Amino acid sequence: MPTHGAAAGKTRSRGCFITFEGIDGAGKSSQIAAVVALLRARGIDVDQSREPGGTPLGERLRELLLHEPMHLETEAMLMFAARREHLAARIEPALAAGRWVVCDRFSDATFAYQVGGRGLAREKFEALEAWVHPGLQPDLTLLFDLPPDIAAGRVASTGVDPDRFEREQRDFFERVRGAYLERARQAPQRIRVIDANRPPEVIRTEIERIVAEALSA
Ligand SMILES: Nc1ncnc2c1ncn2[C@@H]1O[C@H](COP(=O)(O)OP(=O)(O)O)[C@@H](O)[C@H]1O
Ligand SMILES: Cc1cn([C@H]2C[C@H](O)[C@@H](COP(=O)(O)OP(=O)(O)O)O2)c(=O)[nH]c1=O
């Protein structure tokens, strides 16, 4: 974990990159604001963002990705095109300036949804990842893990019209969940699996402990 020199009043160092992941309805959006508030209360300069999106172009690509039917490989490449722009225009400059970046989803989501959920060839995912962000991964990823039937119930209860991904069936989300857990097993130091089938306050306490650990590392 990089030092948080700006917060501690030491020499400014590279910022920390934290991502949130999980299937739709896992509850990550509800917790991101709390983490950002916690970090800001500690004097850390935080840029909160999301994928797909995070830049004007990325948000336009998000609209297409969430609503326009397309080939699986088009979908994967557009996710990485939006990410390339996001890294160049926002993430890299922020981290280089010592700001922290808290992002709702990153490349683990492409592994989970496009490789796990849709069946994109792994080598194609790996090639895109190596092209778009060689040597860069989040410093910490909080993976919200939840059975798909419970997550689907939560999504339905919001009353918001489901997008192209949210309309997928349970077996799709079983594969997405499995791919996320596989990715977590490959990078256990970086990806912390959170049992999201608990009350929000309990999850929040656990996340605050993990982030506090990151702060003191
Ligand atoms: N731990 C939780 N227990 C029960 N309901 C939750 C929990 N966390 C979030 N929710 C509810 O589930 C819905 C989806 O949560 P949200 O944070 O938008 O999920 P995500 O961003 O992971 O798709 C919202 O209505 C939210 O209030
Ligand atoms: C970043 C990313 C998102 N997605 C999908 C997951 C989500 O269904 C959708 C939008 O993400 P998000 O806004 O996080 O959805 P929600 O808040 O409802 O959980 O995009 C991918 O399929 N691949 C990706 O690389």
UniProtKB/TrEMBL annotation:
Keywords: ATP-binding, Kinase, Nucleotide biosynthesis, Nucleotide-binding, Transferase. Its EC number is 2.7.4.9. It comes from the Bacteria. Signal peptide: none annotated. It is an enzyme of class 2 (transferase). GO terms for molecular function: ATP binding; dTMP kinase activity. Residues 20-207 form the Thymidylate kinase-like domain. It catalyses: dTMP + ATP = dTDP + ADP. Pfam families: Thymidylate_kin. GO terms for cellular component: cytosol. ATP binds at residues 22-29. NCBIfam families: DTMP_kinase (TIGR00041). Phosphorylation of dTMP to form dTDP in both de novo and salvage pathways of dTTP synthesis. Belongs to the thymidylate kinase family. This is Thymidylate kinase. It comes from Thauera humireducens.
